[in-house]
Each structure stands twice: as C-alpha cells, then as structure tokens.
Amino acid sequence: MASPVFDLDVLRSFATGMALGSYARAADRLGRSTSAVSAQLKKLEAQAGTALFRKAGRGLALTDAGQTMLAYAHRLLELNDEAAAAMRGARLHGLVRLGLQEDFGETLLPGVLGRFTRAHPQVRVEACMARCTELRERLSLGKLDLALVWETGNQAPLPHGECVLEAPLQWIGAASDHAAERPPWWPKGRAGGGRHAQPLPLVLLDAPCPVREMTTAALDRAGIPWRHGFSSSSLAALWAASAAGLGLTVRTSFGLPRSVEVLDASAAGLPELPAISLWLYRAQAQPEATVARLADLLRQALPQSEAPTRQTAASRPQGVPA
Fold first, then answer.
1. Closest-CA residue to 173 (of 118, 239, 126, 116)
2. How many CB atoms lie within 10 A of CB 282?
3. Alpha-carbon distance 178 to 51, whole Å?
4. Could you tell me if 225 and 199 are in contact, meaning their C-beta atoms sit under 8 angstroms apart?
5. pLDDT (tens digit, 9 = 90+) per residue, 93-137?
6. Residue 86 and residue 91: Cα distance in Å, rounded?
7. Best CA proximity match to 70, nearest among 322, 241, 320, 321
C-alpha cells in the first residue's frame, strides 16, 4: 500500500489553527473560508487514517495521533519554508550583525543560525552577546543590524523596533533535586513561622541593571529584608551562584539551566514581580533582505524557545474552539 503524500497547504492550515487557537482565525489568516479549512482537516484525517481531534467541551482537542501529526507538520513546513528561502536567497551575500542577551545564547541562537546559514550560505553572521544598555548603544551607533533587547519601561523604545513578547519576571533558586538541603535563609512562606528572619540574599547582575532595581524595590515595598549575596556581569555566573545556594536571582524563564527552578512567589511569601518586554530592533526602517530574513527566523523561534518553568509541570492545554 502506497504511503500518503501529505499536502503542505493542509498541514499549514492545521498548524496555523493550533497556533492561533481557532480555525476560524486560521482561515482568515490564510485567506480561505472556514468551510475550506474544515474540508482540509477532514482530508488530513483521511490521509492519516486515524482521528486527529476529539471533543473537549464545546471545542476540540488533539488526540495522541494529532499531537504526533502536529509535530511532523511543524518539521515539514519548516523544511519547506527553508527550501523556499534558500531558492530566493541563494545569491545573497554580505554580513549581518546580530546583538542579543545571554538568555537566548543556548536556547534560541543555535537553531536560528543553523536555519539561516543553510538558506544563505554566502552570508556571514556576527553575533554580539551583551546586556541591554550596551545593545541599545551599539544600535544607536550603527554597530548592529538587528538586536533582541529586554525592555523594562524605564526608557523609551528605540526607533525601528517591535515588541515581540512579554514575559513575567520570576524568583529563581537552586532546583529542589539539585540542592542537598535548603539554606537557613530560604523563604519559608506564609505558614513557615518567623519567615524572613534573615535578610534574603540576592544574586543579581552588576549595577546599573533595571531588573536589579525592580527586585529590590519590590522587596522594600513588601517589607522583606534583603542583602546582596552575589553579583556579576555574566548571566551564566548568576545561574551558578543560584544553583550553589548563594541566594535567589530574578529573570524570566528563558534559558533556565536544569540546576535552577522557578519559585512559587505566593507560597514562598515573596512579592509578585512585573513583566518585561522583549523588543526586536532593526538599525534601519527598511532593512536589507538578509537582515529581514534573520528577523523573521527570530520571530518564529521565540515562542518555542522559552523553557517550561519547573515549578509548573502541567502541560499547556491543546484544545481549540470548534
């Protein structure tokens, strides 16, 4: 029996509907009618030879087979789009100067650079890992073509930028399966009795740092004593110090190593922290094709690059409205 040949247009409708949470929105995004998308999904189930959806209240959820199909759909569409980009950009040459913060060095950069280099082998990429202040300065001086920068709202955004996502700041400490035992200063929560008897040691980036200021201000408002336990200009050093039990640090959940985990702020008696915004900046309003392509790849990779917080192990719901 011949294997089915899956239609990429059908797979794109399938994947887009799951990403947007609604096949009506997917139809609008793809320029098709809702009935046409519904027919595509029936065709996909027929080709798969098994049910991909099941009823979940008033909507639909993926079956196990549907989850498997979605993973393959993402891979097939990614390869197709990569091939199309390679054909369009086979003759592109030049240099793209990319700036980003350490949070994305291991989780985001390898996959993005791999896809970009395969599609544009004649384009050279220079990556600069730096903190937000230096990245903003380099952009202003024309030393970067593209940059991913965390913004906290204490400065006006730079020109030619877009906010690509928002992420809450989190209290982060040594992973429970990594630390032999909790140190005496560890927050005991509301039921712990005598909580915060010792100042809370903080593991933070060197000043000036907006996150450092936001963290200490939140503790001051909550009346929680604190002290500086460790500081460094390196994010990797913060992870190491936190894992070693020198104190708690504060970051988003992007790029967390396995040696640390997100704390439940409420259970630990710690103040809730605000969200910060991630901005994708371009040096020019109309960037060159190579810069625009790398920006597209960064946007696509970002939603997949955030590590799940180890404090909440439950998987995200997969249901979509009918």
1. 239
2. 22
3. 41
4. yes
5. 789 999 999 988 888 888 888 888 888 888 889 999 999 999 999
6. 9
7. 320
Residue 174's Cα: distance from chain center in Å?
A: 21
Could you identify the residue written with the tokens 């909790």?
Answer: 182
pLDDT averaged over every residue in the chain: 84
Q: How big is the CA angle at 265 (ends 260 and 266), to the nearest 5 degrees?
A: 145
Q: What is the pLDDT of residues 281-299, one digit of tens each?
A: 999 988 888 898 899 889 8
Q: Which residue shows structure tokens 């920068």?
A: 149
* Neighbouring C-alpha atoms within 13 Å toward the C-beta of 35: 0
Pairing assessment for the beta strands 200-205 and 226-232 based on DSSP bridges: parallel
The amino acid present at 34, given as its one-letter code, is T
User: What is the Cα–Cα distance from 122 to 263, expressed in whole angstroms?
Assistant: 45
Q: Quote the CA–CA distance of 219 and 212 in Å, as a whole number.
A: 11
CA distance 165 to 167: 7
The structure tokens 């915060």 sit at 196
Which amino acid, residue 65? A
The separation between the first and the last C-alpha atoms of the chain, rounded to the nearest angstrom, is: 33
CA-nearest of 302, 282, 306, 304 to 292 is 282
Q: In what order do the strands lie in the sheet with 53-56?
A: 53-56, 59-62, 320-321
Separation CA 271–CA 266 (nearest Å): 7
Single-letter residue type at 296: D
228 close to 201: Cβ distance less than 8 angstroms: yes
CA distance 209 to 237: 15
Q: 171: helix, coil or strand?
A: strand
What one-character DSSP code corresponds to residue 226?
E
Which residue has 């399938």 as its token pair? Answer: 14
> 241-280: per-residue pLDDT in tens?
999 999 999 999 888 898 999 999 998 899 999 999 999 9
